[in-house]
Amino acid sequence: xxxxxxxxxxxxxxxxxxxxxxxxxxxxxxxxxxxxxxxxxxxxxxxxxxxxxxxxxxxxxxxxxxxxxxxxxxxxxxxxxxxxxxxxxxxxxxxxxxxxxxxxxxxxxxxxxxxxxxxxxxxxxxxxxxxxxxxxxxxxxxxxxxxxxxxxxxxxxxxxxxxxxxxxxxxxxxxxxxxxxxxxxxxxxxxxxxxxxxxxxxxxxxxxxxxxxxxxxxxxxxxxxxxxxxxxxxxxxxxxxxxxxxxxxxxxxxxxxxxxxxxxxxxxxxxxxxxxxxxxxxxxxxxxxxxxxxxxxxxxxxxxxxxxxxxxxxxxxxxxxxxxxxxxxxxxxxxxxxxxxxxxxxxxxxxxxxxxxxxxxxxxxxxxxxxxxxxxxxxxxxxxxxxxxxxx
Length: 392
Ligand code: PLP
Fold this sequence. Notes:
Blueprint: H1 16-29, E1 35-36, H2 48-59, H3 72-86, E2 96-99, H4 101-113, E3 119-124, H5 129-137, E4 140-145, H6 156-162, E5 167-173, H7 185-197, E6 201-205, E7 231-236, E8 249-252, H8 255-268, H9 274-286, H10 288-310, E9 325-326, H11 337-348, E10 350-351, E11 353-354, E12 366-369, H12 374-390
Parallel strand pairs: 1-10, 3-4, 3-5, 5-6, 6-7
Antiparallel strand pairs: 2-8, 7-8, 9-12, 11-12
Bound molecules: pyridoxal-5'-phosphate.
């Protein structure tokens, strides 16, 4: 039998970040220890009260399908959080779907709103799922460059220049993966004005909202005047509560959009896992101290990375205000980003992601994730410094 895959599969690559991880795994299989500064996966254990809530739910037999929207208590807690933290007023009955992570939230948002030929404007470098999700829908990703010289802040004029009669959606993710840039209030207001002027949807990925440093504030674009009806906000538990393996998140939008998103959610997931939803509920109700501690530790690690980078000849970077990534330029090193990450894996036993995996504008950069322990980061960066000196 000659199997023919769907044509769209030719346009969608497997995750580049996973490719990096697999290269490291090959060395690890030979017993070589590799320091991972690659995956954006916080190393903290999930807080105990969250685990206890999920365990209790299992013990009590809370093991069946839930409402497609997710359990009511969780949706109510999400709407309370959105009002208090984000200034977004949401009806928990009709404007929230609990999803299998933010990944599902992004996918159903794109599949439910974009037609083949529609254009989606995305800041470049970008989290690769946005472009891949667009490909599934047959839409065209239109990148807008983020410039290191501008601290990776998006220039709203660059967005406006890319708008055509086919533009349907803008994607905003702040704090931003992979640059760590946080889009300020004025920038988001300018983006909101563009969305209103051209009648566009906005997909706002706020998964790193809690990870902001030096007093920088996170703003939600849906809270700006005229934006709630045209914004799909996605958020989740993976990063803020170190729950990457739990696979839980949510999507928030006006009722008419949610009705369309629900059609895709029903086909892909039916509902988020029942007992995991109880864990997520406990995360929202009981966790403020745990988050503060995690953020303090991330801030300490961020300083460590920047201190090391300051001493590395040939490396420049824009100081990140959020997330747990730094995205230095390696333009002056004499290797491209993929060559350099391969070299650093072989020579320093440190695994990093080449910037080009995040789009054209990521070329000649590397992404350093400081979501592993302080010790690991220190060892990893010392080894990188040494390896870089060797090629000079
Ligand atoms: N959005 C961004 C910007 C991310 O960086 C990630 C994961 O790294 C996700 C979404 C996926 O999140 P989740 O684990 O909730 O699916």
